[in-house]
Amino acid sequence: MRKFSCIALKIFSIYLFIRVIMYIYMSTGLFIALIEQPDMYSIPEILFSLVPVVIYLLFSSVLWFYSEQISKFIVKEDNEIAFNSSFDFDKFQQISFSIVGVVFLIIGISGMAKYGIKMLIIYHHGLYRGAYIDLIPEIIVFFIKTVFGIWLLIGSKGIVCSLKKAFSGIENNSNE
User: Fold this and answer.
1) Is residue 92 part of a domain?
2) What is the pTM (predicted TM-score) of this model?
3) Does any domain span residue 95?
4) Neighbours of 18 (CB within 10 A)
5) Distance between CA atoms of 55 and 151, rounded to whole angstroms?
6) Mean pLDDT of 149-163
7) Is residue 132 part of a domain?
8) Is 84 left (phi over 0), alpha (psi -120 to 50) or beta?
């Protein structure tokens, strides 16, 4: 099971690294504008605009290089995967929920950082209050994703047990 978890984390690490490359590609216009008009943005604004890409790169590196340790956290007891009658689908579901939790957690943290930085830039420039207020719902959405990710990561065993009880109740009602 740990191997499955480790592979999934490495795949997500590659996805995050691709996001880093896309961010750099899409930011080339900003870099060209900075070269042509160096006074357009302040140094803190430039540094803050790099925070999301740094977060993605950091998480990508951590997931790649520490995927085995993270897998040990997600999968407490290691079992070999053999798709037969003794395969533990509950454990498989717990691992799946935990990995989805890691995805939501990273997306939530990077999104909150991105929109938090935008709010700081708007505040720094004294732009109209409406622009500042428009970002608050975005931050709330990413906060909810972060909390949801933590819940999926930590509470995967409880989620699987609850789903199992709910579906066993549905099966019992349909058989009657």
Assistant:
1) yes
2) 0.59
3) yes
4) 12
5) 21
6) 86
7) yes
8) beta
